[in-house]
Amino acid sequence: MKGVLRRTYIRIIYIWILYVSRGNRGRRCKLYKEMKKKGIVLDVVAYNTVLHVIGISEGVDVSITLYKEMIELGCKPNIVTYNIIVKFLCQSGRFRLAYVILDQMPEKGCFPNVITYHGFFGCLEKPKEMLKLFDRMIESGVRPRMDTYVMLLRRFGRWGFFVQCL
Q: Record's PROSITE patterns (predicted)?
């Protein structure tokens, strides 16, 4: 039991360092490689943290590589994993790949939630595409939250859809 607690404690420390080392991009990747070399096995929560932190500093391509490595090592992604990847893809303008992942999620036993769709809504630039995705969200049984409506209203307002109402 002490060995398990020690490994968990070490894992938490490394993940905390990943968060804290914001200014030093190379340090994050180096630290992740060091964790692997020391045999620290990451669970899905730890991988999600690493995916998020490294994705912010290194970009979506490094996150996708890490995501593939995670799967190869037998760690099953969860909804948070997919939400991180979808958001990074959308932010980098790679909507086709984000839609591919959105389509594959149910096949892998992980159904999109409202956060998944928010990743798209925050980045889409075409009103028709956004409405089509909103319809898809409703049809799939995902209920919008108040912040979903606020996000959509702001986007459509910026596009000038409400000028005539004033």
A: PPR
